[in-house]
Design brief:
InterPro entries: Aminotrans_V_dom, Kynureninase, PyrdxlP-dep_Trfase, PyrdxlP-dep_Trfase_major, PyrdxlP-dep_Trfase_small. This is Kynureninase. Homodimer. This protein is 37% helix and 14% strand. With 432 residues, it is an alpha/beta fold. The chain folds into two domains: 133 residues, Aspartate Aminotransferase, domain 1 (Alpha-Beta Complex), CATH 3.90.1150; 268 residues, Type I PLP-dependent aspartate aminotransferase-like (Major domain) (Aspartate Aminotransferase, domain 2), CATH 3.40.640. Strands 6-12-11-10-9-7-8 form a seven-stranded mixed β-sheet, with helices on both faces. Strands 13-14-17-16 form a four-stranded antiparallel β-sheet. The protein binds pyridoxal-5'-phosphate and (2S)-2-amino-4-(2-aminophenyl)-4-oxobutanoic acid. Pyridoxal-5'-phosphate binds next to helix 4 and helix 5. The site of (2S)-2-amino-4-(2-aminophenyl)-4-oxobutanoic acid has 5 residues, from loops.
Length: 432
Amino acid sequence: MIFENNQAFAQSLDRQDPLHHLRDEFLFPKQHGVPFIYLCGNSLGLQPKAARSYVDQQLSNWENLAVEGWFEGENPWMYYHKELKGLMANIVGAGPQEVCPMNTLTVNLHLLMVSFYRPTAKRFKIIMEAGAFPSDQYAIESQVRFHGYDPKDAIIEVAGRNGESTLRTEDILAAIADNGEQIALVLFGGINYFTGQWFDMPAITEAGHRAGAVVGFDLAHAAGNVPLQLHEWDIDFACWCSYKYQNAGPGGISGIFVHEKHFSDTSLHRFAGWWGYQEQQRFKMEKGFMAEAGADGWQVSCTQVVPMALYHASLKIFESAGFIGPLREKSLQLTAYLYYLVGEVNKALGFEQYKIITPAAEGERGAQLSIIARYKAKEIFHALVANNILGDWREPNVIRLSPVPLYNSFEDVFLTAARMLTISKELITPKQ
Ligand SMILES: Cc1ncc(COP(=O)(O)O)c(C=O)c1O
Ligand SMILES: Nc1ccccc1C(=O)C[C@H](N)C(=O)O
């Protein structure tokens, strides 16, 4: 599409957007009574208006049924997760039996590594991206130590070439091939939190398998953002949080994916708990753990009903949007528009004040653009917030802006760039 740098053009795109009405399903934070242009779905998605009634419903169940709520009423808590599984499966491209809502993200990363990182003296290394989200780094390092290895020997980080912010797929594949028989696990983010780079998940998975390794992904920044086909891509396991692009609230419940080819593998270790026990037998309270079939068998503690209700509210909006296909179509346009407009801001300033480190290619990014501001980066970020544009800041110099197709408009994107230009002119003197 040929974009234009004017508000009327942005408004005309909004009029043609079949998903534009969905923003009415969300609550926008305000500053001095004026709603923010919210571009921070990469960190915390907005609250669906329906969230409160989904939670209210569970509070009523608790009020009216108390302990009987587990088994009685319209939607007994014992089975509530099943209502979410089909919806979640659509978000990540899996069978419903391959996904389950449970716990929180880093906890699930640990639990899945218990099953899928099984180092041997010969094959004990983990390949990951350099600059992964710190929680993933800490989780992986601690798992390696738990098995008696030194992270310095066991973790191979693939980094960008000579100062490049993003990774080249060929370098990732070469690192996997070069370390072949020593790799136990390839564990990548789907999209890197800092750069917004969407890795070539099918190619990484294929290379990992060719090397004889298990392949897993942390999809915190990918689930609900980009189209995923976890089953078809033959990924072994994955987990994600629901509070970013899936709008399930701060600390929202996480989701896991385990490929069905692993369901019959009785050699997999798990850190078991009663909620992973065979559902029909669970309340017999017998000795000797027997896992429920599918991803549900990785559950540990009893269902988190309220976080699940919040996730449910948001997943129903995804369902009404037709899931990821239509959202991705809009997302590509929205983010491409922001990409174009940032270039226009640079043009108007006469120098490259803003450098986008997120790949431009559609297949290598989601909604997020990570932008380095050359001069006065932090002041510019604060001025954006003061001007009602809410993105976020990641040290040392990156402003992340993520137009989210569920609740952002083309006009939001236009106004963001327009305010970036005004602010830049105000803050940066010609000498600089
Ligand atoms: C890639 C990634 N991993 C892990 C986390 C941490 O998740 P949690 O605090 O829910 O465990 C986040 C976000 O906070 C993330 O973006
Ligand atoms: N869970 C949070 C709690 C507090 C503050 C930020 C987060 C984030 O999710 C940050 C996000 N993962 C990021 O990509 O920076």
